[in-house]
Design brief:
Aminopeptidase, 14 strands, three-stranded antiparallel β-sheet, binds zinc ion, alpha/beta, OB fold (Dihydrolipoamide Acetyltransferase, E2P), eleven-stranded mixed β-sheet, 2 domains
């Protein structure tokens, strides 16, 4: 779907070269005609995270070039097309923070408020509705992301057997409770729609390895949901090894217990050197803001420490 997108980039975020994605949120799909599962993999809900888009393009190209006889339907989606084009996390609003029920209901009722991300979201809602309308079984969704900090990649799951099972299949540490700590993510919406959904935070935004990692993760998703068979995944053991190497020595599952929310006027700055899923101790100074030191309120693992300017989550602590 195409629509007029007002462009008014934030001034507080460094623009990076974007990735060209075209006018459609559907990057491509592969369904050779055998009925079966529906698996949707989305990327680029944040426009400064092009790795997922590149990973999905590799998979689509491989399936097409090798005419792979998959089962069911695989659809690759791109989230924030405008922000991807200019390499910004978002243009007016964070697209991955406005999927709570109240926001979605208002958007459906009243239409876009003039923000770029409202238009993007409305198009996505319509595309998802069309894609899933005639599908009778469970819809599977994996949402691909990357992080501003270096550190261990992980799966964002919710605390249900379905979701934690899927997280386990993707071979990375599973973090539960983030969907409650971060209101308005796509996960919140699509879980409420009855999807079997997880997200992955796969490496640092600019790290070329993030593309390999997200590609490996996406293949495991297609395998776990029955779209492809083991023998159809190119270098399946290499793909597994990429993920297992990352997960080596890491906790299997972590539950989020604390979120340090921030506002632009706080002057929040993480102390340098924190990595995702790094062990921290109660009382340790993690960051500073206008009021002084910010200390860890408990022992645990630090999650998603913020090293970019745009964002409303300083860090999380999981146990
Ligand atoms: Zn993201």
């Amino acid at each position: 779907m195409s629509a007029h997108r007002p462009f008014s980039p934030q001034t507080n975020t460094m623009a990076r070269p974007g990735v060209e994605v075209g006018p459609s949120h559907i990057l491509g799909e592969w369904s050779p005609g055998v009925a079966g599962p529906l698996t949707i993999i989305s990327a680029g809900m944040h426009g400064n995270e092009p790795a997922g888009v590149l990973a999905l393009r590799r998979i689509l190209a491989y399936l097409q070039e090798n005419n792979v006889a998959t089962v069911g339907r695989f659809v690759a989606m791109a989230g924030n097309l405008t922000a991807l084009g200019v390499g910004l996390r978002y243009v007016d609003r964070d697209l991955n923070r406005q999927w709570d029920k109240a926001s979605v209901d208002r958007l459906n009722r009243e239409g876009p408020r003039g923000y770029t991300e409202d238009i993007e979201q409305l198009e996505l809602l319509q595309d998802f509705e069309q894609l899933t309308r005639h599908h009778l079984g469970t819809v599977n969704l994996l949402d691909l992301h990357t992080m501003s900090a270096k550190g261990v990649p992980f799966i964002v799951a919710c605390d249900t057997p379905d979701s934690t099972w899927l997280a386990h299949q993707l071979l990375l540490p599973g973090i539960t409770g983030l969907e409650k700590a971060i209101p308005g993510t796509t996960l919140e919406h699509f879980l409420a729609q009855g999807y079997r959904a997880v997200a992955v935070e796969g490496g640092q935004h600019q790290d070329p390895h993030a593309v390999d990692l997200l590609e490996a993760c996406a293949w495991m998703m297609l395998l776990a949901t029955g779209v492809v068979q083991e023998a159809q995944v190119p270098d399946v053991e290499v793909k597994r090894q990429i993920l297992q190497d990352e997960a080596q020595g890491q906790p299997h599952q972590v539950a989020v217990r604390y979120r340090h929310g921030i506002h632009p006027e706080d002057g929040f700055a993480m102390l340098p050197g924190y990595k995702n899923l790094q062990r921290i101790r109660r009382g340790e100074v993690l960051a500073r803001d206008r009021t002084g030191d910010i200390v860890a309120p408990q022992d645990g693992w630090i999650l998603l420490p913020l090293y970019q300017k745009a964002g409303s989550d300083g860090f999380f602590i999981g146990v």
